[in-house]
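Supplementary Text 2. Reproducibility record for the structural model of the 286-residue chain.

All settings were left at their defaults, and a single model was retained for analysis rather than an ensemble. We include the record here because the model underlies the residue-level annotations in Supplementary Table 4.
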Amino acid sequence: MFTKKGISRMASNSKVLGYQPGQSFIHQLSGVSKLIFFILVSVSVMSTYDTRLILAVSLGSLLLFQFSGIKWRQVRFVLIFIGIFLVLNLVTIYLFSPEYGVGIYGSRTVIAQGWGRFTVTAEQLFYLFNVFIKYLSTVPLAILFLTTTHPSQFASSLNQIGVSYKIAYAVSLALRYVPDLQEEYGMIKKSQEARGLELSQKATFVQRIKGNLQIVLPLIFSSLSRIETISTAMELRRFGQHQKRTWYSYQPLKRSDYLTIALGVTILCLTFLLFFTNGGRFFNPF
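Retained model, structure tokens:
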């Protein structure tokens, strides 16, 4: 028989995307240094198509994820969702413009002759590969930042770089609430299954959709009620009265933080240097 305490324990052991405490060197970095590094690297990767740089950043991202101690199974749901979106993006690019890479790189190397305009060229495959490793570069860094940075420290870092503390605090509340929402969903799901509602792989796809809707809709209304309670409590405490505020989780920058920021600046400068070397955003091996 399921008790409330037992259900809560099972829900807390589920795959929840949120802050994961740890002792890695990434956890020890200040939130502001990780945020600045993530922004600089993301700008670099998104603004260039130099395969050498993007591939190096993607390998570095995977190594950082490995060193952080975060398990892949802990973020499996997010990775599956992003993976599906990535496949749809690549397929859409090919369907709407199957020779887009040919126009970019100025050559046409046919690998397989398809039907009509749908041919397989080395240039198009190379372009799609670049799009793929762009995701491989930024997604692990984004997940790593969210799972190794406490929400309060994230809010403090946003305020340190000039974001209004009201916006920073709203972001902090959202990050805190996502794991709670996932945990509450898991608890309700276990309760429903204990009462005989089949939501596992044994049920049909339609049955699982209906069963999850029975959970999601009440969860949305309870979330709205909780938001109203939090906003009322903040108003009663006169939140937002002053122009500035202090942060309990404020963490001064250390040598490792300055090195992290310097690495991000170096990657960004290298991106601009490659613009001049390649004569544009694209690295052309053809």
